[in-house]
Amino acid sequence: VTPLPPGSAGPSPVPGMFADRTEPGADVQSLWRSARSARCEVKTCQTGKISTAEAAAQSHTARDTVVQTEQSKDTVQDVHQEVQVDYAGLLLFLQRVEDAVIKELNKNWKSHAFDGFEVNWTDQDETVLCLHTLSYPEAQDQNLQVTSVSWNATGSVVACSYGRLDDGDRNTEKSYVCTWNLDRRGLNPQHPDLVVDVPGSVMCLAFHPSQPSLIAGGLFSGELVVWDTSRTEDPVIWRTGMTDDTHTDPVYQVNWLPDTKHRNHSRLLSVATDGKILVWREERDGRLALAEGFAIVAQQIPRSTRLKKMAWGEAAVGVTSLSFSHFDPGVFVVGVEGGYSLRCSTAAETPALLRPGGSVPLRAPAELTFSPHAGPVYSVSCSPFHRQSCFLLPPSPRNLFLSCGTDGQVHVHSMLQTQPLFALQLSKKYLFCVCWSPVRPLVFAAASGEGVHLVDLARSMQKPTVSLKQSMSNCPVYCLEFNTKHTRLLAAGDAAGTVKVWQLSSDLTEQGPREMSHLEQLASEIMD
């Protein structure tokens, strides 16, 4: 039975309530299916949060995999099998080349092409660098100057003396000796590792050549003092005191000498402007006793070569510097206030004509007077390089030395002649110190009123190779010293109370082949 649609009037009334009839079918759409289909489309069109699958894709365990082939047993057996050598053929070959090989070996043995040349495996540096600028503020507050610098036996500690080279009460003014260990971690450039208070101006100092803790110093008063830097309470272990043997003028240089009679002891040499060169020995009671002495007297200098201001009646000639020959330890050179350099001998027996006094008679050591500078000589330095006598090399008596002074010139001398081989005008101001390089026969350094000058004679004999400004104010540099252990280091002290440690470039510290021969040839050509 198909119900009538709403609002239909229906068929015309017929007799009876119901009648059989056939109507076409009707379609009813499913709302549940369409709603479910819509929800599925939304799900498939939108993407939820993508989750990575690294944990599942990566392995949590590692395992080494053999990627090289292992040696087979057959190969191992082959290696251990005896190698077949044709000994008869090898013997014939060696007999055939024996004469030629021996000839070449003898030729190389007698060659001097690489004399003094050492292979350097370190990096090459082409510039000179300032590694450290050291100072003691308390000394600078007193306007004290660095009068001397010295390296200890290990080459790791540098010491400087504070004093006064200009006007001032140098005899009573307090001064200092300071040391810095450059190998120490946390180095403070303005805080020395050791400060020794000295009642008087310290004019010079020198470390002991083999005992790193011993320093000798010369004072303005003429006294000598030796300090032991390992003793912090009372570092003074020896001193001369003020006696009849003590210098009467400031001590400008001290040197340690080996004691030929006692191997475990050293002697101390001092020079001063009173003209005396004194050798001291250590005593058990802490005194330095005079062992022997020399004096530079005017009578040993020819009248024709003297400066006008030097009178014949003046007995002593002020000594400012001294350097021992590395070729003959009995020969030394001194520089004097009169502008001369003199060759001297420790074997001299001539008595010095001085006023009697002192416990030891003094001798006159001068043997040869060299052509003078135009002013006082402040420093001399003997070359550490010379040819040793042997059956391969002819003995060479030539020994070179340098001298410098207030005329701003460096004279290069041979001990065989009075005239200098040549002279270099390095500065228009004073030259206070000069020193040969310990590793380069043709290199030396000079301290001037302008700074530090480094000269390489292989490059130029007319001008410095490198000129270094010690400070922005161009204050004078009074002292310098090469480090013989760490040969690229050079220490220089100035009038501002500063010590600078310079690292030299490779070309100034590496000896080239035949450099010694070049120096010998240079001197020979000039002498000829």
Give the gist of this structure.
The chain has 528 residues and is an alpha+beta fold.
Secondary-structure map with pairings?
Blueprint: H1 31-45, H2 54-57, H3 73-80, H4 87-110, E1 129-135, H5 137-141, E2 145-151, E3 157-163, E4 174-181, E5 194-199, E6 202-207, E7 214-219, E8 224-228, E9 236-239, E10 251-258, E11 266-272, E12 276-282, E13 288-295, E14 319-324, E15 331-336, E16 341-345, E17 366-369, E18 377-382, E19 400-405, E20 409-414, E21 422-425, E22 431-436, E23 443-448, E24 452-456, E25 466-468, E26 477-482, E27 489-494, E28 498-503, H6 515-527
Antiparallel strand pairs: 1-28, 2-3, 3-4, 4-5, 6-7, 7-8, 8-9, 10-11, 11-12, 12-13, 14-15, 15-16, 16-17, 18-19, 19-20, 20-21, 22-23, 23-24, 24-25, 26-27, 27-28
Structural class: alpha+beta
Round the Cα radius of gyration to an integer and report it.
Answer: 45 Å
- What's the mean pLDDT score? 81
Strand content: 25-35%
Largest sheet: 4 strands, antiparallel
**Beta strand count:** 28
Give the distance, in angstroms, between the N- and C-terminal Cα atoms.
Answer: 152 Å
Shape, please?
A: extended
Strand order of the largest sheet: 1-28-27-26
Total helical segments: 6
Low-confidence spans: 40-45, 304-314, 387-397
